[in-house]
Design brief:
The chain is mainly α. About 60% of the residues lie in helices and about 5% in strands. It has a two-stranded antiparallel sheet.
Length: about 160
């Protein structure tokens, strides 16, 4: 009988599976399709979501867990440049995916070298949270956006999720 995964590995597996599912929902689309907006006045698109999730990965892993102070990828917080700058050009798509993969790799490497789910980090002064909370938040973030991605993809080409 195989051994059950420990808590950290279990959470990491859930997070990685959500990331993989997100990639699948975006596969096979042109830059213009990826940049297709949902319904006015929303700026939501699959490409914007790639950019947004890269920023989310960056903030929670590089800043909150690793303690760094990286610049935001697409402008100051609250300006929605991750969504607004998601235009249907191949260079924008390539940059978005490359950046997202870089941030995911950083997060995966960080998690691979940290076993303590109870380690406390400062999310926003004075709020303190532990590593477990960050991973659960990331799973929640992807789960929320996977629902959006389902609707966007179906509106673009009729493809429904499995």
């Amino acid at each position: 009988m195989s051994e059950l995964p420990n808590e950290r590995d279990n959470y990491v597996d859930y997070l990685d599976s959500r990331r993989e599912l997100f990639v699948k929902k975006c596969e096979g689309l042109t830059p213009e399709q990826l940049a297709t907006r949902s319904v006015p006045p929303s700026t939501m698109s699959l490409l914007g979501m790639v950019r947004h999730l890269a920023e989310v990965e960056r903030v929670w892993f590089r800043r909150r867990l690793d303690g760094g102070d990286p610049e935001r990828l697409w402008g100051p917080r609250g300006n929605d440049d991750d969504w607004n700058g998601a235009v249907g050009e191949q260079s924008v798509v390539d940059e978005a995916w490359s950046t997202w993969r870089e941030e995911v790799t950083f997060a995966q490497d960080w998690l691979a070298s940290h076993d303590d789910m109870d380690a406390v980090v400062i999310a926003y002064e004075p709020e303190r949270i532990n590593v477990r909370d960050v991973i659960v938040h990331m799973i929640e973030e992807y789960a929320q956006h996977l629902g959006h991605a389902d609707l966007l993809r179906e509106a673009i080409d009729g493809q429904r999720s499995d």
